[in-house]
Design brief:
The protein is 37% helix and 17% strand. It starts with a strand and ends in an 8-residue tail after the last helix. A hairpin with a 4-residue loop joins strand 2 and strand 3. By secondary structure, it is α+β, with helices and mostly antiparallel strands. A seven-stranded antiparallel beta sheet has the order 12-11-17-16-15-14-13, with no helix packed on it. A two-stranded antiparallel sheet has the order 1-4. 45% of the residues are buried. The protein has 18 helices and 23 strands. Among the domains are: 280-326 and 409-420, no CATH class; 338-400, no CATH class. It is found in: Cell outer membrane. Belongs to the SusD family. Keywords: Cell outer membrane, Membrane, Signal. Residues 88-222 form the SusD-like N-terminal domain. Residues 263-552 form the RagB/SusD domain.
Length: 552
């Protein structure tokens, strides 16, 4: 009989007593590979390795982050780039984008790898092998869910819309066409329910677990608008006792923690300095390298957007501001340079140096002197403004910042500094805070406003900002609006925002400074009905398989 062979990743992960390390694997016959539990474990961990790629970048999770985060409204690119990531950021999608093509191919590498294990691990032999089988079901579900988000429309826009092909075997001649959104969701839910049943060993946040399956089920049901089950699965994770929210002081440094040392991390794609970044040069190609330049390493060309800054600055003491690091300029004496700045009607930043005299702050513009006044908002925060020819112009009163192409450098640190390594980061898939947010959104959509606010207040308290009550809801806003704002603040730079906006039928508002507004026909607003909220099927896949229907 001809033996079936599989090719494991060139550098697959193996488990050692002290850490995750890389180990080369040759071509191995499946029958030999799966002859003992150790081989089964090594092959399963090889599937995890496919998520992160050979050198900690260019892998599945790297491209997923860029596809998911750059199309949101939390970041601002300070100019342009020849890299195809620009088309993800500015919504000028192209079917030949190498990043979406690589994400597609890497996704199916993981899927085929998990299919091999699912076909060949016998259920019910040992608890350890059931755990590994469950992990493969989880990984397949995770990849299909994220592929569906990237290439298929939100569930509530029509379950019969096309999503991605469901390949559920390892057979090379199994080349399915695109399935529907509903069929992909059904498969994801089925895999996660199976994984939840099989997994009873918690090996830490670097590996899938029962709670990881429950956490992802909570999100899947939330996206599907099955709010009762979204809340139910969120509560399963919260009540499991396996996870706790970081205290405020430690939360401010969450990005420095390895997932296994973070008590609220449920599952993350874990990277380590010893095996995933092989020298300083690798740090220039990580996710964090675009968000910040640290110790002279990294491009530092993509910053927190003025839209996100305006939201988080509503509460100046918000602990989540720790993940944003303004790059202040200094004068010859090492002191900050006082300025006011604002965004003009052309969506460009305006900076003016100020002078303080007898408690009055002024600046000069085109020979005219303007006085800065202040007022207090409903939250007790001090707001600053000057009277322009067009009326009141609100400003930020601060110190001058370093700039690139006129864009102030508000570095994003959430994807850097793990274990004090410059741009090391292990992208989070699920953490406990999301469960409170899922629960809050599910409650809000069912009209349980008090319970929704109770859930987000857990996170607001941790962030060091006032709790919200029904009487605090601003005129014209709903509890759901407040919940989604809290979700944006908490999960910023973790790859959620793009999907949260469109699945809720909202419009992505991008009327703020950034390279996305350069060129002809920029996208200032993207409604949830736009064709551009999902990516093209990679052109090379259409060429290889002409029966695949392209997204419009």
């Amino acid at each position: 009989m001809k033996k079936l062979y599989i090719l494991l990743p060139l550098f697959a992960l193996i488990i050692t007593s002290c850490d995750l390390e890389r180990n080369p694997y040759d071509q191995v016959a499946v029958e030999d590979l799966l002859s003992d539990p150790g081989s089964i474990e090594a092959a399963t961990v090889g599937n995890y390795a496919l998520l992160k790629g050979d050198l900690g970048y260019s892998g599945w999770v790297d491209d997923l982050h860029r596809i998911s985060e750059y199309a949101g409204d939390n970041i601002s690119l300070s100019g342009g780039t020849t890299d195809d990531l620009f088309y993800l950021y500015n919504y000028q999608a192209i079917p030949t984008n190498y990043r979406t093509a690589r994400f597609w191919s890497n996704s199916y590498k993981v899927i085929v790898g998990t299919n091999v294990m699912i076909e060949r691990i016998e259920e019910g032999v040992t608890e350890e092998e059931d755990q590994l089988l469950g992990e493969n079901y989880y990984l397949r579900a995770l990849v299909y869910f994220q592929m569906g988000n990237v290439f298929g429309r939100p569930y509530n826009q029509g379950p019969s819309n096309l999503s991605v092909p469901l390949k559920l075997t390892s057979a090379t001649d199994d080349i399915p066409d695109r399935n529907t959104v509903e069929e992909v969701y059904e498969q994801v839910i089925s895999d996660l329910e199976k994984a939840e049943t099989l997994m009873n060993i918690n090996k830490g946040a670097s590996y899938a677990s029962k709670q990881a399956a429950q956490a992802l089920l909570s999100r899947v049901y939330l996206y599907k608008e099955d709010n009762n089950l979204a809340q139910e699965y969120a509560d399963k994770v919260i009540s499991s006792g396996e996870y706790t929210l970081l205290p405020t002081s430690e939360f401010k440094e969450m990005n420095t923690l390895r997932p296994d040392n973070n008590p609220e991390a449920i599952f993350a794609v874990t990277l380590s300095s010893e095996s995933d970044l092989l020298g300083e040069s690798d740090n220039w190609y990580t996710i964090g390298s675009l968000y910040a330049s640290i110790e002279g390493i990294g491009w530092g060309e993509m910053y927190a957007s003025s839209s996100y800054l305006n939201l988080i600055n509503k509460n100046p003491n918000d602990a989540r501001k720790a993940f944003i690091e303004p790059q202040y300029l200094e004068d010859d004496n090492g002191d900050g340079i006082p300025v006011v700045y604002w965004v003009n009607s052309q969506y460009s930043y305006e900076f003016r140096e100020t002078t303080d005299s007898n408690g009055t702050t002024t600046f000069v513009d085109n020979g005219s002197t303007y006085t800065i006044y202040s007022e207090t908002d409903s939250n007790g925060n001090e707001l600053y403004f000057f009277n322009s020819s067009n009326g009141k112009q609100y400003v930020n009163k601060d110190f001058d910042l370093e700039k690139r192409n006129g864009y102030p450098k508000f570095y994003i640190l959430k994807a850097s500094l793990q274990e004090d390594d410059v741009h090391m980061w292990s992208p989070t898939v699920s953490r406990l805070a999301e469960m409170y947010l899922n629960k809050a959104e599910a409650y809000a959509k069912q009209g349980a406003d008090d319970l929704a606010l109770e859930a987000i207040n857990v996170l607001r308290t941790r962030a060091g900002i006032p709790e919200m009550t029904l009487s605090d809801i601003p005129s014209g806003k709903t509890v759901l609006d407040i919940v989604l704002e809290e979700r944006r603040l908490e999960l910023a730079y973790e790859g959620h925002r793009r999907y949260d906006v469109y699945r809720n039928g909202d419009t992505m508002i991008r009327t703020y400074p950034g390279g996305h507004l350069n060129g002809t026909n920029p996208f200032y607003e993207i409604p949830s009905t736009s064709n551009r909220i999902i990516e093209f099927i990679p052109e090379q896949q259409i060429i290889l398989q002409p029966s695949l229907i392209q997204n419009p």
